[in-house]
Amino acid sequence: MTEPTTVAEPIVVEEAETKRGYAGQSVPRKEDKRLVQGEGVFFDDVKRHNMGYVHFVRSPYAHAKLRSVDVSKALEHPGVLGTLTGDEVALLTDPFFQISSPPGAHLRDFCLAVGKARFVGEPVAAVVATTRETARDASELVEVDYEPLPALTDAREALADDAPLLHDEAGTNLTWEGVYEWGDLDAAFAEADRVVKISELHFDRFNSTPLECNGALVEFNRGTGQWTIITNNQFPGFAAIMMGPAMRVGLDKLRFVTQDIGGGFGNKITSHPQLVACCLLARKLNRPVQWTEWRTDFHLSMSHGNERWFQDTEVAVKEDGTLLGFRTTALDDAGAWLRYEPLGGVIWAQVTPGMYRWRHIRLDFKQVTTNKAPVSPNRGYSRMQHLWFTERVIDIVAQELGLDPVEVRKRNYIRAEDMPYETPNGCVYDSGDYAKMLDLALELVGHGGLEEKRADAESRGKLLGVGIGSTLDSGTNNFGQSRLINPELQFSGNNEVATVKLDIFGEIVVTLGTTPQGQSHETTAAQVVADILGCSVDDVNVRAGHDSYWNSHAGFSGTYASQFAVTGLGAVKGATDMLAVEMKKLASVVLGCTPDDIELAEGFARMRENHEAALPFMALGAIINANNAGLPEDLDVTLNCRYVYRPPFQPPDVERKFGNLTLTYAAQVHVAVVEVDPETGVYEIVDYAAVDDCGKRINPQVVEGQVMGATAQAIGAATHETFTYDEDGNLLTPNFYDYHVPHALDMPPLKTGNIESPSPFTSMGTKGMGEGGGAGIHAVCAALQDALRPRGNPIVYDSSNPYHRVWELLSDPESSRQRVTVESR
Amino acid sequence: MAEIPVVTAETVTVDVNGTTYEREVEARRLLIHFLRDDLDLTGSHVGCDTGNCGACSVIVDGILVKSCMLLAVQVDGAKIETVEALAEEEQLSPLQQAFSDHHALQCGYCTPGMLMSATALLRENPRPNDEEIARAIQGNICRCTGYWNIFKAVKAASGQEVAE
Predict the structure, then answer these.
(1) Pairing verdict, β A289-292 and A598-601
(2) How many Cβ atoms sit within 10 Å of the Cβ of residue A741?
(3) What is the pLDDT of residue B163?
(4) What are the structural domains, with CATH classification, of chain A?
(5) Which pTM does this prediction carry?
(6) A741 near B CB under 8 A
(7) Residues of chain A contacting residue B42, judged by C-beta atoms under 8 Å apart
(8) Looking at residue A773, what is its pLDDT?
C-alpha cells in the first residue's frame, strides 16, 4: 500500500533566465490565417488516388439477434469495392481491451456487432464503394435478418429480474459498482440539525456535438504492414492501446496523423471501433479507404454524455446552513458498451466535495448498460454530473431551510486561506478564492438591484429568478485513478511530449503530441518558446497537429481533460529550456567564454557584457547541422531537444480510494438571471455572468474564448439539448432538426470576469481550463428554481429544462416537491 | 430492397471564384460535394445532413445558399463564391481579419460558412446592429465560441465601435 498523497511538491523544471513579455498577452492566433481562408486541412479534405468510401450498415433495432448478414447483393452493385461483416471481424480481431473489473471486464466488444445488435445505429456491416453516394446506396442492399429482442432504455429498470440482459457474458446489466465512503457519516448525521432527503435527481443525456463528425482516411502499406490513419481522433494514445491488441499488431504499425480538427470536446476519443473497421478494409481491399460519419450517425452512435440518476440522497446540515456531509447512490447509464467506461465511475471523485468543506461523504456508484448509444467523455466528463448534483443539493437545502443560496455557499465554500486544500478523498485543490469569484459574478449582474428587477419583471407578468453555478474544472489526470475502477490496471501518472529544435537556417521548430481542436496550441506554445529563446512569436514555427512519425508523443498524448496549459506547455517549456542551454553552450564555444556569459535575446546568442559578440540563431543552427568540423569532441549539443513532461503524482491508495487524482483545479462561478412566462413555461436568460480562475493565463483571449464556448454549451444543455429515446430504443433527436443546439439568436448577454490564482504545482502557474465544469447548467437550474418559488416552491430535479418541463413544474409543483423531505433532529 | 436506378449524369458549367469549370456530374450529387470532391475546393465544410448547420454556405449568383441543399446540376451556368475567394493575394479581407482580431473562431470548422453569411449580410447592410447580425448568422451553427465574439467581429468589420 502506498502512502496517501498529501500536498504535491511543485514541479522542478529548470527556470528560464528571464520572463519576457509574450506569456500573458492576447497575441493573435497563428492558426487563424489558414482557417479564415478555408485552407485548414481537416481529415475529410485529404484525398488519395483510388480511395474507396466507407458506409456503415446500422441496426434499426435497439436490441436484436443477428440471424444472418448477407452482403452478396451489395457486392454485385456497380461501384462497390468490398464489404466487411461481424463474422469476419470476429475472426480477424480480438475483442477490445476492457478497462472494467468483472463483470464489465467480460464484455466482448468488436468494431462491428457480432451476434447481436445492442442499440439503434450500431454498425453491423460496412460497404466500400467508389463514391460516397454509391456506398450509401449499396449499404441498403445488405440484407440483415434481425430477431428483435426487448429493449432496455431506462437505467432504473436495468436491475429488475425481468430486465432484458444486454451482455450474456457479464450475466448482469450492472457492469461496474464501487462504494466510496470517507469521513464518519454516522457522526455527521448525528450532529445534524436537519436532514434533507431528495429521492431522485436526473442528469440528462446530451453531448457537445462538434460540428465536424468523426472520420478517417486510412492507408495500408503492405510492405511494412503499417497503417497510416489520417483522422480527427483526439486521443491517439488511447486509440492505439485499444486498436493494437485488438488488431494483433504492435503500436508502431499504427501511424496517427491529424492536422485541423473541427471540435472534439471529448466526443472524438472513442472512434477506435470505426478506425479498426477502416484498417481492416484498407488491408482487405488493398486501397485507401475514407470514412466520414454522417451527422445522423454521430447522434445515433457516438459519445453520448453520461446520463446519471442520483437516488436516495440524504444531506446532513446544521440549522445555520453548515453542510456536514451527504450520502447518495449514483446510477449511471453507460449505454450499450464500455468504450471509455467505467472511468466515469471514478473521474467524478476528482471533485468529490464540489467547492465545499463538508468532510463526510458516501457515494455508491452503480453503472449499468442499456440499449442506447455508448457514452464516452463529453466536456466536463463525469465531474459535471457530480458538480451539478452538489449545486442542486445546495440550492434545494437553501430553499427548504429558508436560507439565502449566496450565504449558504459562502458559509461552506473552501476558503482561500485553506488552499492548498486536501479533500476528504485526498485530492489537493491547488489554489483559488471562490467567495471572491462569487462576489464578482454577482456584481456583474447587478445583484444589489435584483429586487427591483424582480418587481419590474412581475409588472410585465414575468417571474424573475437568479441562480448560481459554482463549479470546478479539474485538470491533468493522474491515470492511477483507473486502479480504483480496476486494481489490475497498470496505469498511473500522466505525460505529454514536445520537441523543439533549431534548424539549419535558424528556424525554430516545435512539435507536440497533442491534437488540438480549436484550443490554439500553436499560438500558446509559440508564446512560451519565444519568451525563453528571446525571439518573436512569428519566429517560432509550431507544426499543426499530431503525427506519430514526429516521435513527439507518449502514452497519454492527445487533447482532452483540461491539461494543455500544464502538460503540453510544461513539455514545451522543458524542451525549450533544454534547447536554450544547448544554444548557450554552443555559443560559448564559438565565442570563447562560458555558457553563463551568454544570453539569448533579439534572435541572437550574445555575450551579456558585449552585445557585439553575438551569433544569430541561423549561425548556431548552421554550425551544428552543416558546418560542424572542428567542434570539440565532447560538445554534447544537438539543437534538437525532446522533453517529456510528467506531473508529480503518486498512485492512489486503492483500499481507501484515496489520493490526488488531478493536479490543478480551475474554478468557475456563473450567475444566470432568467425570466419565465408563468402561463407557458417559456423562459429567457436575460443576464449572465461568467467568472473564471485558471491561474496564470498564457493568452487571456484564448482563455476567454474557451469560457464563452463552455458557457454556450452548458446553456444549450440546460435548455434544449437532449438525447431522448422512446421505449423501443429509438433516438428521437438524431440530427440538428430535433436536437436543438444554441443558435445566434439564442444567446443571452454575457459578462465575463476573472481572477488569477496561480497554481503552486505547475511550472508556469497555469491550470487546465477547457472543459468549464458545466457551470451554466447549474446556474440555469438554480435560476429557474428561484423564479418558480412564488408558484408553489417546485424543485428543479432535472438538468435539462425545456419549456415543457418548466410548464410542468408550474402547473404541478407538488409532484416535484414530493421528491424532497426535511427531517428535524 | 428494390433495384437501385441507373445513375444519370449531366454536364455542368460553373464559374467558381472567377474560374470556369466544366464537369460531368451525377444528377444526385450535392453542390457541396461537387465543390469539395470534384473541384477540390475544400474550404466549405459539411456539418450536418439536414441543412441546419450552415458550414457549407456559399454565395450563388449573389444569393447566400447552403450548398448541401442544392444539387450540382441546379447551378449550371451560375457564378459561385466560396470562402477561398475572400482574401486577395493572401491579403485577408476586413471581415477575415476581424474574425482573427476578435477571436471569432476556435476550431475553424464553421468559419468558412460563417464568413460567407456575414459577407452576404454586409453587402446588403453595411452597418448592421447586433440583432441584424444574429439574425443573419442564425443559420450557421458554431459549437466553440458561443457566437459572442462573432457578433463583435462582424460589427468591427463593418467599421462600428466594438465594446471590449
Answers:
(1) unpaired
(2) 21
(3) 79
(4) 32-39+495-645 (3.30.365.10), 43-149+213-261+269-301 (3.90.1170.50), 178-207+303-480+651-824 (3.30.365.10)
(5) 0.96
(6) yes
(7) 38, 41-42, 44-45
(8) 85
